[in-house]
Every structure is written in structure tokens, then in C-alpha cells.
């Protein structure tokens, strides 16, 4: 006769869609649950797992570190992400989206893994949209691949005039009054380098005054200037142009 553990777990694995969110197959999830839960607690733990999409903190401590370890993405002994393996398996776009999150310094490996996997899930949702929107805008402007490649370096003058405006409008970076929709910026570019509230508040200084926007000459120009400010706060600085 099957144990209560096996029955509960079997019913959950059949009915739940959370596995895709957890980057794990049924066997991996079962292995981690057996490692971290117990027959006495499994029913309650499965109920917590069903709420995974709405977690604001890891309700099953260290579960995601176990899953990331089993995938070979996280080294619990060194308390580090295996960045090259992540890039090889998930792609450079996914890694770049989460690069700040995956490189943070922390002594809490469980929290580190939780935040990293949550970021990778967010990247799965948004990184593709960011890239496809950028490519769509470049096609509208008949930009060449060579011109797009120039965006690998941050320059004071936009390589493709008005490309960022097209992108920002499509991604909803601004409301009708011209104010930043910060959440949309974060969804497009991923977590910031420093997530301290004081740093997040600095983004307000990126919004040029109405006078400064008018003096910039046109919407494309002031939007690009504000984008450069975003990059500067995240530790990315202008590349000096060759004289």
C-alpha cells in the first residue's frame, strides 16, 4: 500500500503547474521535498508550494537552493552560481538580465538561490519581449546589424536616432505625463545593481525637468539622456569615443 506521502505527492505532481516555475521535473522536486520536509509536514508543505507564484519570501526554506543544486546551476559549498553553466544552458540573454542578482555577495545561500531562481523566471517572462521589441524598432528604422552591434558600448550620442524612444514607448516606460513607470524599466532590464531604497530613489533624479527636456531639442534626445542616467546608476559608464 502506498504511504500518505506518496499519495499526496503524486496527486500534487499530477495537478499542479508549479513545476515549470520551479525549473524542475517531478523527480527533482520529489527528491528535494523528501530532503527538506517530513511525512508529518508534507501536506502543509504542499499547500505552501501551491502558492509559489504569490510567494514574497521562500515559504519552504532552502527548497530552491536544492532545486538549483540538482540542476547543476548552484554550488552550495562555495555559495555561488555556476555562471558559465547557466549561460550555456539558458542563454546569454537570461544571464545578462539577472547578472546583478546572480553576482551579489551574501552569506545566506538559501535566500541567494531563491532570489536567483525567481529572477531567472522573470527573465524567462520578460527578456524575450525586451529583445523582440528592440529588434522590431530597429527594423522600423531600417537599422543594420552593424549599427545594432554598436549598442554593446554605451555612447553619449545614440547610434540609431530615436531607437530608444521607439523602444521606451513600446515598453511603456513613461506615463502620459512623461513620468517614469519604474516597474516597466525593471521588467525590461532586470534587477538593479544595488537594490537599496536610497539607490532606487536616485532614479527620480534621472527625470529631466520640463525645461531640460525642452532644451534637449527633441523627445528622442531627452529620453536617451534619461536612459544613460539609468545605466550610470547601475555602474555602466560611457565609452570614450576615439578622437
TrEMBL record:
Coiled coil: none annotated. This is Odorant-binding protein 83ef. Transmembrane segments: none annotated. The keyword Cell cycle does not apply. It comes from the Eukaryota. Pfam families: PBP_GOBP. It is found in: Secreted. Belongs to the PBP/GOBP family. The keyword Hydrolase does not apply. Residues 1-20 form the signal peptide. Keywords: Disulfide bond, Secreted, Signal.
Amino acid at each position: 500500500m502506498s504511504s500518505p506521502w506518496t499519495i499526496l505527492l503524486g496527486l500534487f505532481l499530477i495537478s499542479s503547474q508549479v513545476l515549470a516555475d520551479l525549473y524542475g521535473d517531478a523527480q527533482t522536486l520529489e527528491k528535494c521535498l523528501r530532503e527538506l520536509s517530513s511525512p508529518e509536514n508534507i501536506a502543509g508543505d504542499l499547500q505552501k508550494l501551491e502558492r509559489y507564484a504569490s510567494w514574497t519570501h521562500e515559504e519552504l526554506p532552502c527548497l530552491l537552493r536544492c532545486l538549483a543544486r540538482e540542476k547543476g546551476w548552484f554550488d552550495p559549498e562555495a555559495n555561488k552560481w555556476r555562471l558559465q553553466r547557466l549561460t550555456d544552458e539558458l542563454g546569454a540573454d537570461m544571464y545578462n538580465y539577472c547578472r546583478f542578482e546572480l553576482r551579489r555577495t551574501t552569506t545566506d545561500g538559501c535566500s541567494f538561490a531563491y532570489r536567483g531562481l525567481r529572477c531567472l523566471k522573470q527573465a524567462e517572462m520578460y527578456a524575450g519581449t525586451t529583445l523582440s521589441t528592440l529588434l522590431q524598432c530597429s527594423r522600423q528604422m531600417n537599422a543594420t546589424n552593424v549599427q545594432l552591434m554598436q549598442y554593446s558600448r554605451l555612447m553619449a550620442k545614440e547610434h540609431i536616432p530615436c531607437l530608444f524612444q521607439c523602444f521606451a514607448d513600446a515598453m511603456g516606460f513613461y506615463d502620459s505625463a512623461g513620468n517614469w513607470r519604474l516597474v516597466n524599466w525593471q521588467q525590461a532590464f532586470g534587477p538593479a545593481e544595488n537594490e537599496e531604497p536610497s539607490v532606487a530613489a536616485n532614479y527620480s533624479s534621472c527625470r529631466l525637468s520640463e525645461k531640460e527636456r525642452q532644451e534637449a531639442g527633441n523627445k528622442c534626445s531627452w529620453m536617451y539622456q534619461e536612459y544613460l542616467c539609468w545605466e550610470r546608476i547601475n555602474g555602466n559608464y560611457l565609452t570614450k569615443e576615439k578622437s
